[in-house]
Each structure stands twice: as C-alpha cells, then as structure tokens.
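Sequence in, structure out.
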Amino acid sequence: MSAPSSPSNVEALRDERERMQATTFTRWANNHLRRRGFATIPEDQVAGAFDDGIVLARLLNALFGVSIPKMTTPAPSDIVRIDNITLAFKMIDDANVKTNFLKTHHLIEHDKKMVLGMLWAFILEYAIKGISVDDMTAREGLLQWCRKQTKGYKVNQADLMDLQNFSSDWKSGLAFCALIHRHRPDLLSYDDALASNDAAANLELAFSVAEKHLDIPRLLDVDDIVAVPRPDERSVMTYVAEFFHRFASEEHRRLAIDRVAAFAKFSRTMSARCDEYERRARDLLAWVDSAAGKFSVTLRELEVDTVERTLALLSDLRHFVVSEKPGKVAEMMDLEAIMAEIQTELRVNGRAPFATDLSSDAIQAAFDRLNGAQRSYADMVRQHRLTFVKKAERDSAHADKLADFEATFAHFDADRNGLLSKPEFKAACNSLGVPFKTEAAFEALVDRITTDSGVPKDAFHKFLGDLYADRDTPEEVTESFAQLADNGAFLSTHQLTSCALPKEVHDYLVASIPRAVDNDDLLDYRAFVARTFKAL
C-alpha cells in the first residue's frame, strides 16, 4: 500500500486543481465573451473579474441570451457593485441556472473557490447538462459518448481503449487523438500517435489540430495533463464537451447533407420516371390517333367494289385486332400501372401528385374513341361484304338442298308410288334434321299437307322449301345462334369453335360479331343479327 498523502501534498494537489480549473474555465468563458464582442478576462484575474457584476452580466448574455439590465459602470463603491451583482443574479435566475450557495459577497471578496463553482455551474448548464445519451446523467452521458467514439482504438499493441473517467484515462493524449480521428481521419494519423508513445506530443497534436482545424479553443495546456498525477476532471470535461458539440454539429451537418442528397435523388428519380411516362404516353396516343384515323373512312374512299377487296379489308382488320392492337393495349395497362406507382410513391413521401394532361383517364378515353371507330368500320365492311356473298350463298344452298330433298324422298318412298306415309314422312324429316317441338305439332303438319293416300312429293318439297326459307329471318337466325350458345345471351368463342364451321365462316363470325362490353371472349350475336337485318 502507498503511504497516505501528507497535508502539504493534499493542499498542493488542491491548489493545482484550482489553478487548472481557473485556466480552463477562464478560457471557456473568454471564448464565449469574444464571440459576442465583449472584453475578455485575464487568466490570472478570474477571481476578481466579477466583482462589479458587469462581466458577469455580459457572460450570461453571451451564454443564455438573457438581456442585460441597466447597470452603473464604472462601479466606484461596494454599494454600486452590490446593486449590479444583484441585477446579474436576477439574470442567473432568469436563465434557470443553479449556483448553490453563491452570494454577493463571494464576488466582491474575490472568493476564488466560489467563483470557479459559479463558472462550473454555467459550464454544466450550457455545455454539459444538455448532453443526453441513453438517459444517463450528463457526466455519464458524455463519458458514454466518448466510449462509443473511441471504440476499437488501441491504447497499446494489446489493449483497446476503455474510458472510465475524465482524468487519468486522458493523460496519454490518445483519447483526444481518437476523437479527432473518428470524425476527421484526414487531420491526423492515429497509428503514428499510438506508435510514438509520447503523451506530450500526442496532446499537443490533438490540441493544435482541434484549435486550427476544428475551431475548438485550447482550454487546456499540455502540462495541465502530463505534469499532474491526476488531471482535474471538471477541466477535462469542459474541454471534451467542446469536442462533443463540434462533432455533434458535424453529424447534424452530415445528416443534413444526406437528407438533401436523398431528397434530390428521389426528386431526380421521380422526375425521370414522369418524363419517361409522358414520352411513352405521347407515343401511344399518337398511334391511337393514327389507327382511329384509318378507321374513319367511307366505303367510297376504300374503293370496295369486289368481294375480294372486302375480304382483304376484313383480313387487315383481323390482323389489327389479333396482332397489332393487343401490344398497344398492354402498353396502356403498363402505363396505368406506372402512373399508379408514381402517384403512390409521391403520396407516401409527402410530395405533390404528378399532374399531366396524359393521364390514364385521357389514354383510356382515346382508346374508347378508337374502339368506337373500329367497331363502326368493321360493321360497315362486314355489312358491305354481305351484299356480295348473300345471293351466291343462297343460290348454292338452294340447289344443294333441292337435290338433298329429292334424294331423301326417293330413299323413303319404299313402294315408289310418289307418296310418303306418315311414318315415312317422319323418318325423312328426322334424316334431314328437321325437329318437331311436340308430337302435336307433327300431327298438325301431317294433317295440313297429307292427301288421302300420303304426303306427295310436291308437298314435301314445298314444306322443306318454306322451312329453310323461314330460317333466314331475324327470328330464325337468332334462334339458331341461341342453340349454338346453349340458349345463353352471348355466344362464347369456344362454343363457336366447337361447332366445326368452315374456317372462313368461323373467322368471319369472330371478326364480325361485336363483343360483350365487359368480356372480349363473349360474342353478342343478338346485336349482330339485329344490326345485319336492319342494314339489309
């Protein structure tokens, strides 16, 4: 065990600590007085610097922004000094600073200990009290911040830095060098400081770099640290707090830079996406206008004078519907999704919505106009085609049917007497696919066309001729389509394909029959038949 310190040694340590505090606190106060343009305090006169209240009032104004009341200056007597100090103490109260047991006479009598205590109270309130790290006290919060900033730095080849106080742990100067290097590695080499093993050199390096490059006033001298067994903790805390505030402001500045960069990056990205959207939207609308223009023509302009020309136009229309248009519809859907994404990102990030004349609604409206022009064009061409093909189809079908009727009659006329019995007539009708809804309907027909001996050939031909002629009325054609659609209101493309119609007939119907409003796979055969017969 070491021998207890003698009274003289204790007193010497106390004096040294007081001297160090006087120097550090005075420099700290002078730094703030200087910034406000006030006269500074001589470092060896701090005890008597506040005896007239004037310097105290100025310091409080510089630190806490408290207005300086009207004071008497110079203060020739103790009475005047007491009045001024009383006014200054009122400023202390207004700043909510606690100065335990400080009285007017302490300042008038130049009580150095009480003056330093007063300055320490100011330092705590202004520079240290506001430091909050993990809900610790100001001292522990500042120390914890120092630990975080110096984490990972070595104090020798084997040990890492682990700060436990504001006194002995700072004697090597490495802690100050680590704080600077953590935030500004360009200002000094920590490896060189570690290798030098020279506390005085390291302290001088840190103090000079902080003063020259970081605008941190030199509140301590090298000897304040290396020349004493245990540096004064309050003095070191005061100086370290300057590093905290300097680097905290640096961190805030970096955060501000990052925030501005992020803001600019987001804005630039969204601007580019909006520009790309508008470019693609303009291209799509140009195509829509061009396509709609091609469909806004008359038959005379198209010079449709043959069935081959009509079929060529329908083939071109089918190519447009099947091959060209789907890609543009997909582009419209992509643009709608892009617009939704843009608006969502802008809204989530609190930005103004993207305003443009090329909105999704505007594009949809353009497509609606195109679809209308396309439908009108298709109806016009299809209806015109019917004028060429209908008569030829009827003539061909009539000849074929007459031959079929003749062959059927001959086949079922078993006794070759030119008459069909009731069973023979029914069998013949069934072979031709002529249905009867009820037996009563069949009997009524037989009664109408049968002679005493049976159904003659001419009555058989007339009945079938009338029957097939009736099938070309709107009602009969609609009924036929309804049978293909299983009596549904719409005929699906699948149902149409399953009918095994000739390819050209199938393709014609697919291209000609309008679609249901809400389902492109459903064909509105009723509207098609009604429109066709009306046009004819």
